[in-house]
Structures are given as structure tokens and as C-alpha cells.
Design a protein that fits this description.
By secondary structure, this protein is mainly β. The chain has no helices and 17 strands. The chain starts with 8 loop residues before the first strand and ends with a strand. InterPro entries: CD2/SLAM_rcpt (IPR015631), Ig-like_dom_sf (IPR036179), Ig-like_fold (IPR013783).
Length: 205
């Protein structure tokens, strides 16, 4: 009688979500089963379900007494880590199963910061920065007309006053969410630069 053992399982969720951690047990009788988080007991089944007092999950856990799965509600970033299920069968210890949970902050806002500098030759350099409400583990994709730029938070290019308005969008994504911002940029030769290039900033939601 063993737990199903295979490739370590990784689950990605967003802050505020719920997650059910499946036991994946073969049928049989178990004297006790224990769910641990980062090495500490958080829930145990031994004829009935008992939750460890004082854990960070207090009031947010639900262990199924038939399937032995563990549901965690109202996830926080601090809930990221390894959950281990282990226990004891009729005759011996059973194998263990580890589930790695990664909780991510969903992207709530994306803003394009546009920095246009008029040069002495009356052309412009353009720097666009994709500013996002949360920063870890983000992927960026820019689209400028039909050109695609990947894996860069900012892009640079040149324009002349004769060129039309340029439409640009930035898509920022992580493993649980994505959002897109749009901007229109143009080089204007009527910008005064008394002491050198002048930066024109605009934030576009």
C-alpha cells in the first residue's frame, strides 16, 4: 500500500484563490495521514481530522476525510512552498507525496511610460517602458505596428517628424494573469530644447 509516486507536482495559483491538493492514494486502510507544510504538521487524519493550532493556515484548511485531499482557501504569497503528505498503513509506513505550490500576485495594472527626446537633427529617439503593478517573474511582449519584441521591459527606436503616429502595445504576463497597455507616439519638430534634448512623458493605461 503506497502513495502514487511520480514527477513532483507544481501548482500555480493567484493570491486569494483556493487550491485542492489531491492525495492520489490507492484504496486501503490508513492508521494516520499527515499533511505537512515546509516540514511542519498542519493537518492530520487519525479516525478524524485534526488541524494544527497556530499555523499560518488556521481557519483556511479543509481536509477531506474520504479522499484525504487538502483544500487551502484565501491563498497568500506566504503559502508558497512544499506540501508533503505522509502516513502509516496497517503494517508499515507508506510512501510520501510532495506538491509544490507557487502563489503569484495577479497583474492589476500596466502603464506605458513614453520618453521622447528631440535631437539636434530634428529626429526623435523613443524609449518605452512597460511599468507593471507587480514585478517578479514577468514576461513582456511588445507590438509596434507589425513588429514583435519579446522579453524586454523597455524598447528603443527612432522616429522622424515626417512619420505618422505609431501605435504600440505592451502585454505583461505571469503564470496566472496578463494585461495589455496601449500608447501612440509621434515625433514633433516643434519641441524646444534650449539646453539639450527634452523628455516628454506620458502614461497610458
Amino acid at each position: 500500500m503506497t502513495l502514487f509516486v511520480g514527477v513532483p507536482l507544481i501548482i500555480n495559483k493567484r493570491v486569494g484563490d483556493s487550491v485542492e491538493l489531491l492525495a492520489g492514494l490507492e484504496t486501503g486502510h490508513f492508521k494516520s495521514l499527515v499533511w505537512k507544510f515546509m516540514g511542519k504538521d498542519i493537518a492530520e487524519f487519525n479516525s478524524e481530522v485534526v488541524y494544527s493550532p497556530g499555523s499560518q493556515f488556521e481557519g483556511r484548511l479543509k481536509m477531506n476525510a474520504e479522499k484525504y485531499s487538502l483544500t487551502v482557501r484565501e491563498l497568500t504569497l506566504q503559502d508558497s512552498g512544499d506540501f508533503l503528505l505522509t502516513g502509516e498503513g496497517d503494517k508499515s509506513q507508506i510512501g510520501s507525496k510532495t506538491i509544490t505550490l507557487k502563489v503569484h500576485e495577479p497583474i492589476s495594472k500596466v502603464v506605458i511610460q513614453t520618453d521622447i527626446k528631440l535631437l539636434a537633427n530634428h529626429s526623435c529617439t523613443v524609449r518605452l517602458v512597460c511599468n507593471v503593478s507587480c514585478y517578479p517573474n514577468l514576461t513582456y511582449t511588445w507590438e509596434r505596428d507589425n513588429e514583435i519584441y519579446r522579453d524586454a521591459q523597455q524598447i528603443h527606436f527612432s522616429l522622424s517628424p515626417a512619420e505618422r503616429n505609431i501605435s504600440v502595445n505592451c502585454n505583461a504576463s505571469n503564470l496566472v494573469s496578463w494585461k495589455t497597455a496601449f500608447a501612440t507616439v509621434k515625433c514633433r519638430n516643434d519641441t524646444t530644447t534650449p539646453e539639450g534634448p527634452q523628455s516628454l512623458y506620458q502614461n497610458v493605461l
